[in-house]
Amino acid sequence: MTDSAGFTEDAFLGGQLRLRQPKSGHRAGHDAMLLAAATAVRPGDRVVEFGAGVGAAGLALAKRVSEIRLALVEIDVGLAELARVNAAANAIAADVIVLDVTSEASAFADAGLAPDSADVVLMNPPFNDPARHPASPDKARVSAHVARPTTLTSWVHASRRILKSGGVLTLIWRADGIAEVLASLDRGFGSFKILPVHGDPAIPANRVLIRAIKSGRAPTEIYPALMLNERATVPNKWVQEILAGKGILPLAKP
């Protein structure tokens, strides 16, 4: 549904979740729902979403496990306000925090995110390579999509700082940047679980979902690839069930 004020109201999880979001700029889609479906949580967990935007991934996760304690961290004041609106409209309790993920530890602590206080962090950082993606005239879209040289390392560092030992980080990134992700996670994280995501089974993966454990020491596991489409234009029925909120991805299993 579209209104005249520059926003749309969109249904996710088969209509279980409705989100108000801007018509232009970054808009929530499959990546956010896949991230939520790949995140392992238990009732009572303190869960923090970095770069939450309008709250899509975190709120989708709360729809699956309602007893989590959710914080949505977003730098853009306008998007943070939409996240508040969306949480209330979907009857989900969430702390919405306006904060730059690259801020110092003191700013996180002032916002209620002290070191070693979170059980789960999930994030979909800006990951487009500026050398290969022409700059958009939409500044909000650039901020949400284009990675700076330090984006990944700073976001991983912030997640490591607020997670408890044994806490879980789940993130989505470009598949061709997997080496960057693993290098960033090498300090302080282990027990990696990796799920390649293909838009088309005939071409290489374009996304990768990764679950990592703070201080984890288990061997790395690579799961069979997730095919969003069985053929170029034929959606994978199992993925459609996941996107409708009727299942989880393997990374979300204990």
Automatic annotation (TrEMBL):
<dbReference type="GO" id="GO:0008757">
    <property type="term" value="F:S-adenosylmethionine-dependent methyltransferase activity"/>
</dbReference>
<dbReference type="InterPro" id="IPR029063">
    <property type="entry name" value="SAM-dependent_MTases_sf"/>
</dbReference>
<feature type="domain" description="Methyltransferase small">
    <location>
        <begin position="34"/>
        <end position="193"/>
    </location>
</feature>
<dbReference type="InterPro" id="IPR002052">
    <property type="entry name" value="DNA_methylase_N6_adenine_CS"/>
</dbReference>
<dbReference type="InterPro" id="IPR050210">
    <property type="entry name" value="tRNA_Adenine-N(6)_MTase"/>
</dbReference>
<keyword id="KW-0949">S-adenosyl-L-methionine</keyword>
<keyword id="KW-0489">Methyltransferase</keyword>
<protein>
    <submittedName>
        <fullName>tRNA1(Val) A37 N6-methylase TrmN6</fullName>
    </submittedName>
</protein>
<dbReference type="GO" id="GO:0003676">
    <property type="term" value="F:nucleic acid binding"/>
</dbReference>
<dbReference type="Pfam" id="PF05175">
    <property type="entry name" value="MTS"/>
</dbReference>
<dbReference type="GO" id="GO:0032259">
    <property type="term" value="P:methylation"/>
</dbReference>
<keyword id="KW-0808">Transferase</keyword>
<dbReference type="GO" id="GO:0008170">
    <property type="term" value="F:N-methyltransferase activity"/>
</dbReference>
<dbReference type="InterPro" id="IPR007848">
    <property type="entry name" value="Small_mtfrase_dom"/>
</dbReference>
